[in-house]
Amino acid sequence: MRKLIVTLLAGLIFSSVFALEVESVYRNSKQNPHYWKNRKPFEGYWQQDVHYMINATINDSEESIEGVESLIYHNNSPDTLYEAYFHLYQNAFTPNSYAHELRKSGKLETVFGEHEANGLGTVINTMKINDKEVQFEVRNTILYVKLPEPLYPNQKAEFFIDFKTYWDKQDQGNMRRRMKTFAHNGYTHFDGVHWYPRISVYDRKFGWTTDQHLGKEFYGDFGQFDVQLTFPNHYIVEATGTLMNREEVMPASLRETIDISNYKTERSMITEPVKPDGSTKTWRYHAINVHDFAFTADPTYRIGEVEWNGIKCIALAMEEHAHNWQQSAGFVAKVIEVYSNDFGPYLYPKIIAADARDGMEYPMLTLDGGTYPGHKSLLAHEIGHNWFFGMVGNNETYRASMDEGFTQFLTAWSMKKIHEADDYNNVYDKYTVFYRYLLHASNENNAILETHSDYFNSAERHGGGYSQVYYKTATMLYNLQYVLGDELFQAAMKNYFDQWKLCHPYWEDFRSSIIRYTKVDLNWFFDQWLNTNKQIDYKVKSVKSKDGNHTITLERKTSMHMPLDIEVKFKDGSSEMHYIPNTYFTKKTDAVVHDAWLGWDDILTEYRFSITTDKKIESVHIDPTNRLADIYKLDNTTKCPSTFKFSNYKQTPGTFEQYHMTWQPNVFYNHIDGFKIGVDISGNYAYYKHMFDATVWYNSQLLATAENLEPYAPISYKFNYKTRVADLVNLDVDSRWLDGANINSIGLTKYKGSMTYKAYFKSLYRNGAFNLNYLLYDNYWNNNLWNNSLNLEVSKAYRYVGGNGSVGLSTRASALYSDYNYARIAIESKNVHEVGKMALKTRVFGQLMTGTPAPESALLLAQGNNEDMMDEPLVRSAGIIPKDLGGFGNDIGNFHYGGGLNLRGYSGYQATNTNGTDTIAVNAGLSGWAINAEWDFMSLLDPFKNINALGLNTYVFADAGILYTNSADMNSGFRMDAGLGTALRISPRYFQNVSPIVIRFDVPLFINRIPPGGSTDYVGFRYVLGISRAF
Fold first, then answer.
1. Are 53 and 18 contacting, i.e. CB atoms less than 8 angstroms apart?
2. Percentage of the chain with pLDDT > 90?
3. Quick check: 773 and 706 in contact, CB under 8 A?
4. Residue 922: what are its φ and ψ, rounded to 5°?
5. Which residues are CB-contacts of 975 (< 8 A; sequence separation ≥ 6)?
6. What's the CA gap between 554 and 541, in Å, rounded?
7. What is the pLDDT of residues 364-377, one digit of tens each?
8. Is the peptide bond before 276 cis (omega within 30 degrees of 0)?
9. Cα–Cα distance, 580 to 529 (Å, whole number)
10. Quick one: DSSP state of residue 464?
11. Rounded Cα distance, 505 and 389, in Å
């Protein structure tokens, strides 16, 4: 009780100290020229004013904040208020919160830290309104309180709140939270964000904004913050606002000691300029024209500072990183300069980039990570938020696109300016903005920007299309620049910032600002970009020339329409620009202006214009600046832009401006062809159109070891082609004359969320008995017989709490001209359930087959069949794997390929069973079921866990199943095995386009049926060398 009285008295004293400042500073029109009433965005606009006075004490051992908050709230609205709402953001990270329910719906396992598990987020001890104690109701992250008396327009109320907020102890939980703490080098780091009870915004659109916090965005009232933070004496603190008692907490001698210039080289030991002695320091901050207050604290912070135009640009680095932050403050100053000059002046006295294992923005403070120069883009982005979110205070909880998208645009803008890149066609625009939107637009394409920030398909973080609030919005702004012209766009953006700085705009306000300033009807533009998922796709359809008259025909292939800049190049080396408006507005341009192309959707999808000249046309190119967000640019020009170069064994690049092809040598070996000397050629357009991979080999027979080498084919090839033919539908073509097999397939693959659908025709054929000699299992393929089939497959990937998995259903029926007549249906389910640092991996498989199947497509008891093995280069033919390791005999063999029923303990064994009168081989058949399980120790026993190119999994396994043959009364009987295994995964670091190789060594210590001609013990040492894994 005594503690409570002392706390209340402290709060009252603290409140009285600052109570007079609200009128004289933030709301004083003369002292604060930026106050919104001095320059309303439009007549009749209003917003609420706040003045927070908070006295907080940080307990670094408990990892909590105890605070008293006095809030003076001015009702500038025309409405009488009868209740109020507050955000208690940290309650989102407790059991059964709305954020937790979101994770449950996404089947994500949630781990709570010590405080989180106890339901400790922000706890409200007492609340008073105008000196009257009130009852309140906490609904997860929203506190509701009924006002003791109505708050009339142009009146104010004072709230007093005693509260306590908890960090998650050393970030033990796995929910993504921004208010965090972590240990490093024996010290504790604290980030204090969204830590105090924050009144909800009451605005002209919603009234009270009462969104539950799901871990994403925020919204707050502009006003004044006067905050006292009491820390143990050895912490270095920075925060929103001006430090009012610098000499007391940061004397010149200490500031000089921790200057980042003293830490240019890496140190083995962290210095301790201030030794903890049990005392405390109180840091006092004052800020106006902000809507939030955040802080960061760390005993090892070292400070770099550069000033630009009176603004202190501060880099705050943990000492272990300080040597790699030497240039960061200077970069921060450059970013501030670019944004101030190009979009509007920075209004605050300082900006901080703090080393905090994060990427988040707050007024005057950004929490970042990484090191220079790698973190430049991150700094540019988070600093940009002080323009859009910070000074232009949109409701990001409702429409995150208005700050994240604008800031993504600023990020590319500043990076290319600072690095003096070309205004167009530069890597910063492409990789920061365009490519990520175009990849989305050409694939799932489900993002509508006019969507609540928490409503993107109930997905966490950037999933469900949410990432497009960054990339689609930024792309839209570049396309707005394309429509208006650079000069008008720049002026309009500056006007928008100036009109809405320190106010609360929505999308309709941005639209109105741009339209009114430019005096251009842009509703068609914003309607398409904000309210639809329409795409841009134009084409140069034809160029016809006769007697000096050149007719150029353009086609719009999708429903979204835009104006077009067109470059015409002539064979004499000259060129000229042409401009085709899509409305009655014509931007400022030196190009030849043609009649408007007034078409949309299916109306007027073609447009023709003529050029009269004696020059011969070399090429016609739509949008040479590449700002137009066209999803397929190869037909934007009469000459397909392409590249062809050596791959350097890296993945073929995928961009939207060119078709990329690469080549590389390919050398392989089998025991008949000997060394196969070949070349790979691959190509793609942005990894969704015209993707192909082709290899041609000359089969030299050098060092071939097979006894009979004739007749062999001197040339072999493989060819795979995929291209998008409809929304998320690919055409797939595969053709191979390889290692004695002629394999061809053609079909369609449809992707829809977590579902994949396939329909395809497949043909397998081996010409002549000689070509069977390639195989490790040459008795399980018939020569000169066609195995043609129609196949339908559907699969679904899923997650559940604690794991993930997939389930697939496949059907096959013999097709026209097949020499076999069979049908099958199979189902397979695979799951990985994580248990700490280990995992239980399971596979359940079942197949029903009727008729007379091709032997290469039979179901095998122990492993995958020959058809499956043709997809694995190491086992499609003997050579790398010696021939004598293949085949089936009377005892357990020593080679295994994952698949089939996968009873690896019976590898290489021609298992038999008897029905009383006959003994029949049961290692291959028609139908069967199996359950396979592995208890995987994952990284616990992995000596290569710090080597990216290698990974070693050690596991205990067990397999069980039954195989049914084509004999009505014969099956394998129930069989099982168990043992130990290890799998080495090799992912060549410098050979990105080489598929990973998995080599297994399994020891089936137990089998329940003993081969009559070999092993006599149920338990004994056996081993199999394996390639690939069935699960």
1. yes
2. 86
3. yes
4. -125, 25
5. 861, 903, 906, 911, 960, 961, 962, 1007, 1008, 1009
6. 5
7. 999 999 999 999 99
8. no
9. 20
10. T
11. 10
pLDDT at 897 over 60: yes
Residue 37: half-sphere exposure toward Cβ, Cα within 13 Å = 14
Contacts of 374 (CB under 8 A, 6+ apart): none
φ, ψ dihedrals at 508, nearest 5°: -65, -30
Rounded to the nearest 10 degrees, how much is the dihedral formed by the CA atoms of 92, 95, 98, 101? 140
Rg (CA), the chain: 35
The domain ranges of the chain are 1-221, 399-533, 538-636, 655-765, 798-1031
Q: How far apart are CA 1028 and CA 999, in angstroms?
A: 6
What whole-number distance in Å separates Cα of residue 8 and Cα of residue 742?
Answer: 85
Beta strands in 153-222 (DSSP E): 155-166, 181-184, 187-192, 198-199, 202-203, 207-208
pLDDT at 30: 84
Closest CA to 109 of 843, 939, 835, 755: 835
| Tens-digit pLDDT profile for residues 578-611 | 999 999 999 999 999 999 999 999 999 999 999 9
Q: State the Cα–Cα distance between residues 228 and 183, nearest whole angstrom.
A: 24
Q: Which long-range contacts (CB under 8 A, 24 or more apart) does 507-510 make?
A: 507/399, 507/401, 507/402, 507/449, 507/450, 509/41, 510/402
User: How large is the greatest C-alpha to C-alpha distance in the chain, in angstroms?
Assistant: 108
What is the Cα–Cα distance from 687 to 318, expressed in whole angstroms? 41
| Residue 264: CA count within 13 A, CB half-sphere | 3
Is the Cβ–Cβ distance between 66 and 231 less than 8 Å? no
SS3 (DSSP) at 346: coil
Asked if 491 and 438 touch (Cβ cutoff 8 Å), the reply is no
Question: Per residue in 588-603, is it b (16+ CB within 10 Å) or e — as a string?
Answer: eeeeeebeebeebeee
Token pair 């000074």: residue: 391
Cα dihedral angle (7, 8, 10, 14), rounded to 10 degrees?
A: 130
**93 DSSP assignment:** G
- Asked if residue 48 lies in contact with residue 22, where contact means CB atoms within 8 angstroms, the answer is no
C-beta separation of 82 from 435 below 8 A: no
Residues 6+ away with beta carbon under 8 Å from 511: 522, 523, 526
CA 564, CA 606: separation in Å to the nearest integer? 13
Count CB neighbours of 280 within 10 A: 12
Cβ atoms of residues 93 and 225 within 8 Å? no
- Both tokens of 600, joined, read 């949309």
**More confident of the two residues 303 and 177:** 303
* CA 337/CA 335 separation, integer angstroms: 5
Torsion angle, alpha carbons of 154, 158, 164, 165, to 10: 10
Do residues 932 and 1002 lie in contact, with contact meaning Cβ atoms separated by under 8 Å? Answer: no
Rounded to whole angstroms, how far apart are CA atoms 926 and 851?
9
How many CA atoms lie less than 13 Å away from 573 in the CB half-sphere? 0
Report phi then psi at 490, rounded to 5. Answer: -60, -45
Q: Could you tell me which CATH class the domain 399-533 is placed in?
A: mainly alpha
Q: 22 vs 115, which has greater pLDDT?
A: 115
Q: Which of 616, 612, 635, 636 is nearest to 551 (CA)?
A: 612
CA gap 905, 1026 in Å, rounded: 12
> Per the structure block, which two tokens stand in for 636?
């934007």
The 3-state secondary structure of 859-926, one letter per residue: EECCCCCHHHHCCCCCCCCCECCCHHHCCCECCCCCEEECCCCCCHHHCCECCEEECCCCEEECCEEC
DSSP β-ladder status, 122-129 and 155-166: antiparallel
Give residue 48's identity as a one-letter amino acid code: Q
Q: What was the pLDDT predicted at 1014?
A: 67
